[in-house]
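User: Now give one protein:

AI:
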Amino acid sequence: MINQHERTKRLRTSYPQSSTHLISGRNSCFKPHHEENLSRKRKRYQAQLPQTLPYDSHPLVKDDFKEYKHTFALYLDIQKNKIFEDLDKKELKGRWKSFMHKWNRGELSEGWYDPSTKRKARENAITRISQTLEDAPGVATTRRNGKNPAYESESESVDGNQSDQSFGPVLPGQEIRSKTRRLGPTIPSTQDIQVMNEIDTEARIARYNEIKLARKADRNEQKAALDELIPQSMAGTRERQLEKKKELNEKMKSFREKSPGTADIPDSDLMGDKNDFEFYKKAKQEMERKKNERELRKEAFLRIRVAEREERLREYRIKEEATIGMFKALVKD
């Protein structure tokens, strides 16, 4: 008889290809779950895309940001009322993603797909950069050396900043932010207004402290000059203590004289008079009268309630007697 080990060995040697095929097929069935989700989302997104875009434009991808940067900046300025240079990296990335999806789904107006719009946006950006550089100092020296500042600024904004001070990729809009900054007065932001208010508050506090110190120093000088003019006794003696007490009394007297004071109050207001006593008696009598009236009204109300209750009880007894009489008549019959 063939044991189990030999039977398994023969099966493996007889069907090597089929076993390998089964193993490979089994492994192919276990795909990662996230890959299936990504492929499903990709197919759904591709199904939503239109067949053709206006002006035979190609769909945008993330790498097209550098090429369509000026068109995207014009879109933000017109549609969203946003300035490209004022947006941070995170917001710029999210808005570019939204613009890219709208472009690919054909949701934008046909004018944005026109190649002339892209060309005009680029020309406007070059003109704006050249005007900014012409207004900035040092442009005459650059032109004297035979260089075009508009061309250099545009090439730097497109190719990226290649200076030794920058490392890694240049952020979108970072190379333009410093070059397209307009000169002249601008509208202050909320943060600028807050900083200005804090500076004004600190200046007022410092000014108040300076005035306070100046007044204190002036008083000390006046006191020292007064001490030099008036002969004083030795410090710590009885005479010196009496002099200090006298000075304090004079100072308090001057304060009392400067104060407006109060009007004379008659004794009748403080101690009262006969008229006040009579008024008190009348008030007490009026209070007792009102109290008696309240008690009388309360007693009348209670009497009315008692009468109503007795009336209801009498009617109930009459009805009960009539019912009992009816039952008695039925029993007799």
In short: The CA atoms of residues 24 and 179 lie 60 Å apart.
